[in-house]
């Protein structure tokens, strides 16, 4: 159902919103440089794994938890930081979350503190009273869309191929959003070792175009 609140969420999660996400690959640049991602099929498999068993899953669980009535953003923010395996992953979630909170505050007149990204989104979106699955699906789509855009340039893939991959991920995005909406903190956990190692080794990658 269309509403002003739904449009606000779309604005906050759009590529035009100034968070600096375009400079963050989450280790994807390492995987491309190492030759682990050289085709559209490789990219789709990598992103699917991030979504189901990687940091995007943890972020979705944390976001869902932050949207629950009575949530403790301070405690969740500390947990989100502790779950970051690498220094660059911590830098990424904090820099994006801080920019997100700062811009939402400036645009709405609210006062939102700097948080890890999923908690910043939760704090901003909670008063909108949108369905949790909707917030989760849009957030996951925004994260994947950014990574597809990065891969389109860095692999390189054609723009049409990038959009085909993103469209193919839509059913998985919806399933993951439903899972996360029904989750609690006991569902936190990842098994994305290749992505973790890529993030850890990115800081020594030369040359590199992306911050993470």
UniProtKB/TrEMBL annotation:
Gene Ontology CC annotations of this record: cytoplasm
Keywords for the protein's UniProt record, in alphabetical order: Chaperone, Cytoplasm, Nickel insertion
Pfam families assigned: UreF
UniProt key word Magnesium: no
Gene Ontology molecular function: nickel cation binding
Localization, UniProt: Cytoplasm
Homology family: Belongs to the UreF family.
PANTHER family associated with the record: UREASE ACCESSORY PROTEIN F
Functional summary from the UniProt entry: Required for maturation of urease via the functional incorporation of the urease nickel metallocenter.
Subunit details: UreD, UreF and UreG form a complex that acts as a GTP-hydrolysis-dependent molecular chaperone, activating the urease apoprotein by helping to assemble the nickel containing metallocenter of UreC. The UreE protein probably delivers the nickel.
Name used for this protein in its record: Urease accessory protein UreF
Species assigned in the record: Falsigemmobacter intermedius
Gene: ureF
